[in-house]
Amino acid sequence: MTTLHEPATQATPPRRRARRLTPSFLARHLLRLAVSLAVLMVASFAMIHLIPGDPLRQMLGPTAPKALVDARRAELGLNDSLPVQFGHYVQHVFSGDLGTSFFSSQPVSDIIAQGLPNTLALAVLATLVALAAAIPLGMWSAVRTHQGRRRRTETAFTMLTGTAVAIPEYLYGLALLLVFALGLGLLPPAGLTGPASYVLPATALAIAPAAMIARLARVETLRELDTDYMRLAHAKRLPARRLYAVHLLPNTLTATLTMGGLLLGGLITGSVLVENVFAWPGLGQRTVEAITQKDYPVAQAMILVYGALVLFINFLIDVLLALLDPKSSLTAPTRQEG
Question: What is the pTM of this model?
Answer without folding.
Answer: 0.73
